[in-house]
Amino acid sequence: MARLDELRLMTRVARLYHESGLKQPEIATRLRLSQPKVSRLLKQALQEGIVRITVRVPSGTHPDLEERLQAEFSLADAVVVDVSFDDDDQVAHELGAAAAYYLESTVQSGDVIGISSWSATLLAMVDALHPVSGVRDTRIVQILGGVGDPAAAGHATHLIRRLAELVHGVGEFLPAPGVVGSAEARRVLLEDPFVASAIALFDRVSVAFVGIGAVQPSGLLARSGNVFSSEELAGVRRLGGVGDISLRFVSAAGQPIETPLDERVIGIELEQLRRIPRSIGVAGGPRKVAAIRAALVGGWLNGLITDRHTAERLLGDRPVDDPVADGLVGADA
Prior knowledge:
By secondary structure, this protein is α/β, with parallel strands linked by helices. Helices cover 44% and strands 13% of the residues.
């Protein structure tokens, strides 16, 4: 077959497939070709530039940033959310909605979902979540103690109950404070059968959604009473702490900050979090860049849902002109 004849046939097959919407067997029948030949011609049309595939990126989506975050921090997944304002409250609301959609799209039957107890962003996620059909036998477990001041503890309870209802699962509460007064108090509480039952599920968690905080607690966490003293937090800063993941403090290099405070936390440990197949950090806002970067550099999480401004700061596209640059650390929102 002469070259022009081949190109003519290639073009005809490509137009029938891409413009007229015919399936390959239909094209084969119409043109009296074998189906393997139709498939080969379509592949050639792409290789020769007769067919060019263009993906139009809708306004408000940021696939380039997502792919760069995945490459830079070796993430399995990244979601970058467009936000109108670069402030913590707006970011928490928008990230919560995006995390809700992500959960709805990816949850599977049999999943054991771990979730932080004192995150305003995760609370926004649950409030934005729709009932999920087609899944069963899920379990939802608190991975940080959910007992606190009665004025705030309702948030942690609502988070687990509502999530369990929407994914048709069973909620497993961790009936203990996230922070206790002493290592001895922690030891006693760990012997409680209900506490032990929840903690036993940590190694079975298949997907976790966690807030990433900084040394200074968020408003919700502070109201719950699950906080360390100002002097203790100052000590964490002196040791190089820039943030926390479920009250486990890390340095800018992502290394654990080991202090006696760890012996007063009732919740998942960093190494347990690292072993979870899908561990998703949901965090953003101008005060959290150092904390988020530390969590990613340390490899404690393999997924991130964040806002565009934070993504740009993490990638060096935008200067870190916020309180983090001055050594202040923000909130586990």
